[in-house]
Amino acid sequence: MLPLLSHQQTLEPVYLAYLDALEQSEYSGDIDKRYSARLVQATDNSVYQFLPQAVLYPKNQQDIQIALTLAATDAFRSVTFSARGGGTGTNGQSLTHGLILDVSRYMNRVLEVNAEQGWVRVEAGVVKDALNDALRPHGFFFSPDLSTSNRATIGGMINTDASGAGSLVYGKTSDHVLALRSVLIDGSVLDTQPLDAGLLCNPDNVSDNPLGQKLISAVAAVCREKRTQIENQFPKLNRFLTGYDLKHVWNDNLTQFDLSRILTGSEGTLAVITEAKLNLTPLPTERAMVNIKYDSFQSALRHAPSLVAARATVVETVDSKVLNLAREDIVWHSVSDLIQEVPGKVIDGLNMVEFAGDTVEVEQKLASLEAVLTEQISKGECGVLGYQVTQDKPSIEKIYGMRKKAVGLLGATKGRRKPIAFAEDTAVPPEKLADYIMEFRGVLDGHNLQYGMFGHVDAGVLHVRPALDMCDVEDEKLLRVISDQVAALTLKYGGLMWGEHGKGVRGEYGPSVFGDELYGVLQDIKGLFDPDNRLNPGKLVAPKHTGALYYDIDSAKRGKFDRQIPIEVRDAFPDVMNCNGNGLCFNYSSYSPMCPSFKVTGDRVQSPKGRAGLMREWLRLLEAEGVDVNALAKAKPLGLLQRVQNTLNAQRDYDYSHEVMESLKGCLACKACSGQCPVKVDVPKFRAQFFNIYYQRYLRPAKDYLVAGIEDSLPLMAAAPRLTNFAAQNPLSQWVIKKAIGYVDAPALSVPTLKQRLDGHASRGYDLAALQAIPEEARSQFVLVVQDPFNSFYDSGLVLRFIQLIEKLGLKPVLLPYKPNGKPTHIKGFLDKFAKTAQSSADFLNQVHKLGMPMVGIDPALVLCYRDEYREVLGANRGNFEVKLANEWLLNVIKDLPAKAAQGKQYTWFSHCTESTAKPNTANEWTKIFAHFGAKLTAVNLGCCGMAGTYGHEAENLERSKALFEMSWQQTLAKIEQPQVLVSGYSCRTQVKRFAGYKPKHPLEALLELANI
After folding, report:
1. What gap in Å lies between CA 171 and CA 149, rounded to an integer?
2. How many Å apart are CA 946 and CA 270, to the nearest integer?
3. Mean pLDDT over residues 95-118, rounded?
4. Which bin fits 801, alpha (ψ -120 to 50), beta or left (φ > 0)?
5. pLDDT tens digits for 670-701?
6. Is the entire prediction scored with pTM above 0.90?
């Protein structure tokens, strides 16, 4: 039996009292004390896990001032804080056991763009790519790049002094910070910007904040006094990152001082940055990328310096492991033409070289490099196998998209050992990189480890992620050994262990880099800003006399908790365990299909990463209770009376399972995560597993039974469609259904029905024996139409027109008998029923499959269910039947048909979420098909429409469903004439009809019109 689960992680009394006091103050932001919210913020993109006391979501700077001012009172001086943005840190940068200050939910505005002077003022929580969206119309961009740019915030970039591709030209974040506004530990506000040295003589000239005056004077004095030691001790690196940048607070001739350089890279240990004024870079007028292919990764590394010498803007490298993982991912369809194989050769390394600038300059550099490469290939030099050039900006962005996804792709490595971040951003002088990497490889090979490598060879930074199993105690010990070895190796080569991603828990290596004297200066600066060590304590340095750093390489890791889950349970929930925290599901763009529930709520609990984390804890707590989860999944529900009682007591009795349910029921089951996520985390899959177990203890809502039974009941309802529609569609019935069942806007059955429309038609009257009697050579002329519940019963006209299209193409359609698909039962977690339905349908379709005639389905979600959920649940019992999507089938058919002349017709295709993520090439396929029919088809990239099967029909989801539609669909539809709109998903067409007021056509209907011209 599923027991009540308690986490035993109550808030410490001082924090509880503080939060109560904060609620009574003028603080206007959100305060989240839920265990689920704390768990989601306990991890980032690293191996560490620190459970915070609570999460604060300030709405403005004043909220942060109120929070810190309250904490400065004697009663709350033990309360600690850590500012957080996108949570993309790779070494626990923002993790804490205190309070999280998450600025990403509300403080995410672009406040001012000054195109004339080339700067922008933003709040700390704005996402980097969102900022560039706002800047693009002005002809500028914020140039420091990073692989997590679609979810990383500007505040996070400032706090880690982030940089990435092209940093030799574009620099680091600190090179673009013109001014900062921060809240200090006492709640006061400090503005920092460059100051002339002469102003420092009078504190009133530098700030009206007394604490700020003290900080500016003290830091300016010590950094000037220690200037010689700083110059001698600090490594000479483009990517040098100290945490507290003592070197650059003064300019070279000591005429200008800028305290912002201390705050930039301080990882929230000195102040909470709320606003930034940033320098902008003009968008280049011309871009060109050369993808150079090598016989080995070492060849790519050793060739890189000559590419930098060619004055390239960017030189990025990936190894064969990353390339091979990319080939297996959804991203490869977009770049395969740009990185073609070299006949008879194996590509084991790739350099991506970009030139950006004015047209003449780019063309000259490109021509020069092409001449050199062509000669090297002809002579067999430098391991160069070939190269490809693209000057198409969208194609260049696709290449960068593949490179940016490399981090997550490594997490998709097979086996229990996964490449992880802990020594992945080392930096050495670029001219020493190849030798350094060879020695680095020697360290890893000496431990018999697999690893992937990629990075910014132009800056001497290469990302190396060794594969370790953090559930294995010995591998966790090995992490420490390797970390120490790499730290020593970087010093040997004049480099640094933290060249790009900040220190986080790696502060323990500081003394060996800075020396005792300068490390003491860092401690003094921390003490000036935060004497009680309450801002992100335990990171970088601690004030003197407060003890050693209490976070280090050996701090608590996720694996410590995950290993408490038995291996057989981990294996039963692979999607839960495989989430590596890369956070791609936090993609900011409303035009991305990735996780609509997170986009519409802004709640990380409502994200794939959040859901996977909550499920891991659920599995751990069940094991702690001695419950065999795999046995529980096969158990029968409790008796009805017991479930009624448990449900009635749910408000009274805390059960952690309710928090998991709250997260999972917000999922739309669109399956975008299973395609978009680099490690293919499939939330709908483990959601169904959880529902199946949860409802053994509690009552299911009535709407679940309505959804799960719809496929079986539709044939009965369609026997009297007008009567059914009258009974269900009148206002009184709709009110009753909404109040009693929680279901709204249910569509009406088709009248006439499909049966009536096809009465007497040759496609009706399926007869297996008759089909088996057809000679083998004639069977290619037949097309078997696989019915789905939604189109057959709610949009029968579409099925009719598909049959007419088949006939127009000179083929013979056969309508197969209606068989329930089972997807609605799977979505709601009726796994036993789904398995029976799937097996029944699979048995039938396998029988028909033997005919050798193509089977084609119309609705993408239902067709893809045959391929995914059927295979998952049935395994080998699924058989080998294949149901094609209409576009897959048509693509083969048109090969034997003459192309039609251009007819001047234009259409715009809107994809279904499941379709666009599981079959990313679908848009290209439809475009090719329409071109063959003489029409132009344009595909638009959009987020979720908000319907997602039956999600949008559930009353509790109505508001979110509408909000999602408004995010991207509504405004895009408004720009296109209705006859030109084509939508392939039934649920999407239903949503358009509901909120846009008209029913769009399916692509098949448009093709029939074209065929009849």
Report:
1. 16
2. 42
3. 97
4. alpha
5. 999 988 888 889 999 999 999 999 999 999 99
6. yes
Give the residues across from 54 on adjacent strands: 99
Q: Is the peptide bond before 920 cis (omega within 30 degrees of 0)?
A: no
Q: What is the pLDDT of residue 232?
A: 87
Total length of the chain: 1013
SS3 track for 411-439? CCCCCCCEECCCCCCCECCHHHHHHHHHH
The answer to whether residue 240 scores a pLDDT higher than 80 is no
d(CA 119, CA 282) in angstroms, rounded, equals: 11
Distance between CA 882 and CA 875 in Å, rounded? 15
Q: What is the residue whose two structure tokens read 């599995």?
A: 619
CA distances for 512 relative to 421, 427, 777, angstroms: 21, 16, 78
Cα 464 to Cα 444: distance, rounded to the nearest angstrom: 10
Look up residue 14 and give its two tokens. 């001082």
Please tell me the chain's helix, strand, coil percentages from 3-state DSSP, rounded to the nearest 5.
50, 15, 35
Q: Which amino acid is at 138?
A: H
Q: From CA 672, how far away is CA 680, in angstroms rounded?
A: 9
Instruction: Classify 855 as helix, strand or coil.
Output: strand
CA 395, 399, 402 angle in degrees (round to 5)?
135
Q: Tell me which range, 114-118, 411-415, 761-765, is most confidently predicted by mean pLDDT.
A: 114-118
Check residue 331 and give its pLDDT.
77
Angstrom distance (rounded) from CA 899 to CA 905: 15
The amino acid at residue 197 is A
Beta-carbon contacts of residue 600 (< 8 Å; ≥ 6 apart)? 946, 960, 963, 964, 967
User: Rounded CA gap, 892 and 1008, in Å?
Assistant: 17
The confidence band for 241, taking pLDDT boundaries of 50, 70 and 90, is low
Of the pLDDT bands very low, low, confident and very high (cuts 50, 70, 90), residue 333 is confident
Identify the weakest region by mean pLDDT among 216-230, 277-291, 313-327, 774-788: 313-327
CA-closest candidate to residue 161, choices 272, 279, 243: 243
| Measured torsion, CA atoms of residues 154, 158, 162, 165, in degrees rounded to the nearest 10 | 50
Determine the Cα–Cα distance for residues 125 and 814; give it in Å rounded to an integer: 57
| CB-based contact 602:967 (threshold 8 Å) | no
Q: Residue 69, exposed/middle/buried by CB under 10 A (0-12, 13-18, 19+)?
A: middle
Cβ contacts of residue 585 below 8 Å, gap of 6+? 594, 595, 598, 607, 608, 609, 673, 676, 677, 681
Q: What is the CA radius of gyration of the chain?
A: 30
**Which residues are 351's β-sheet partners?**
292, 317
Beta carbons within 8 Å of 861's beta carbon, 6+ residues apart: 823, 912, 914, 915, 949, 985, 986, 987
Identity at 96, one-letter amino acid code: T
Which residue is associated with the tokens 């050992």?
A: 417
Return the closest-CA partner of residue 318 out of 457, 424, 428. 457
Distance (Å, whole) CA 45 – CA 421: 8
Smallest CA-to-CA distance from 920 within 708, 648, 671, 705 is with: 671
Cα(494)–Cα(798) distance, integer angstroms: 68
Rounded Cα distance, 918 and 386, in Å: 31
Q: What residues form DSSP beta bridges with 196? A: 256
Residue 764 pLDDT: 92
List Cβ neighbours of 285 (8 Å cut-off, separation of 6 or more).
357, 358, 359
Indicate if the alpha-carbon torsion angle 514, 520, 525, 527 is positive or negative: positive
pLDDT tens string 956-975: 999 999 999 999 999 999 99
Asked if 120 and 278 touch (Cβ cutoff 8 Å), the reply is yes
Q: What is residue 970's DSSP assignment?
A: H
The C-alpha atoms of residue 235 and residue 518 are separated, in whole angstroms, by 13
> What stretches of 152-200 show up as alpha helix (H) in DSSP?
154-160, 167-170
Residues above pLDDT 90, as percent of the chain: 80
The helix-helix angle for 13-23 and 61-71 (nearest 10°) equals 130
Average pLDDT of the chain, as a whole number: 93
